[in-house]
Write a structure and sequence with these properties.
By secondary structure, this protein is of the alpha+beta class. It folds into 3 domains: 69 residues, no CATH class; 103 residues, Immunoglobulin-like (Sandwich); 66 residues, no CATH class. 27% of the residues lie in helices and 22% in strands. The chain has 9 helices and 11 strands. A 5-stranded mixed sheet has the order 5-11-10-7-8, with no helix packed on it. Strands 2-1-3 form a 3-stranded antiparallel sheet. A hairpin with a 3-residue loop joins strand 10 and strand 11.
Length: 317
């Protein structure tokens, strides 16, 4: 306590060393005799202490208190860590009003110590979507991964909603990367179906063309087919051989093609690593890597801490 109020204890050996009543009871500075002073005007101007042994004897009870305090300090000095790896769906995920849904985050224990048994994943701020605290169900050793599964219920009103979460232990001590669930509540598009129309078979006349069932006549003239017909046949053949993979590209293919065009090897490696971590915005990844000299760890910290909002776009680009 600083300044000391009330009763204080003055060290008889150390110069200008005083303790409050609580610190003296806790066993702080037990290796020197302490002088109890009830009032400030009773404090001596100078104190000289002479005793036979230069090292005071420490009784067993004081030693136990000291060891207990050292054990507590050692436990408090342990730092736990958690890194975001991937999630089950990206931001702005479309959900119907009032619908229940589940999101899964994969976190890695990138620290040197296993996570404690009382770890919880709790919502720290953001919109209320009915998420309850989730306790850990297994021991997660160093470099181990764990899937956090959270149940949500979308609000009834349409709009954008985001909830933020952190891992905690003990007396609400938070650690690890911040994660969030971002959704877009939107009513599903309705397909309007017209009323069925009843047809009377007698209204239609069925015409059968007998020529369709006759065998085609063979060309005996010996003439070659026209050039226009050959070209038309080639076009139809090419169209028939087209597949969806030739026409459409997946987001990963587009990302990788853009990455291969880069000539800087460090930039390509960084772009590939960020994609593996789940960051698929090519322009944002490239801009951040260029700005921070290809430091993937720094870029990941920025992306995971929610730096990419509307207020920071201008700073990045």
């Amino acid at each position: 306590m600083s300044p000391i109020r009330g009763i204080r204890f003055m060290c008889s050996v150390c110069s200008n060393y005083d303790l409050c009543e609580n610190c003296e009871k806790a066993g702080v500075h037990i290796h020197h005799p302490m002088l109890k002073i009830r009032k400030a005007n009773q404090a001596p101007a100078k104190l000289i202490c002479q005793y036979k042994n230069t090292e005071s004897e420490i009784n067993s009870s004081s030693l136990k208190v000291s060891q207990k305090l050292m054990s507590k300090d050692k436990k408090d000095s342990i730092r736990f860590s958690g890194r975001f790896i991937k999630e089950s769906f990206p931001d702005m995920f479309e959900v119907a009003p009032g619908a229940s849904f589940t999101k899964i985050w994969t976190m890695r224990n990138d620290g040197a110590t296993a996570w404690p048994e009382d770890v919880l994943l709790i919502q720290t701020n953001g919109d209320n979507m009915g998420a309850n605290p989730v306790p850990i169900t297994t021991v997660v050793p160093s470099q181990g991964e764990y899937d956090w599964i959270v149940e949500f219920k979308a609000p009834e009103q349409e709009g954008k909603y985001t909830s933020y979460f952190r891992m905690t232990f003990g007396d609400n001590i938070r650690f690890g990367h911040k994660i969030w669930c971002s959704i877009l509540v939107k009513k599903p598009a309705m397909i309007m179906m017209s009323e069925p129309v009843a047809f009377n078979q007698s209204q239609f006349e069925v015409v059968v063309n007998d020529d369709l069932y006759k065998e085609p006549l063979q060309d005996k003239s010996g003439e070659l087919p026209k050039v226009e017909a050959i070209e038309e046949a080639k076009v139809h053949h090419q169209i028939a051989n087209l597949s969806l993979s030739n026409v459409f590209q997946t987001p990963k293919e587009i990302y990788m093609q853009a990455m291969e065009k880069e000539s800087d090897a460090n930039l390509k490696n960084g772009l590939s690593t960020l994609y593996d971590f789940g960051f698929v915005e090519y322009k944002i990844n490239k801009a951040l890597l260029t700005k921070y000299m290809y430091d993937v760890n720094t870029v990941c910290e920025i992306l995971l801490n929610g730096a990419l909002n509307e207020s920071t776009f201008e700073k990045i680009f």
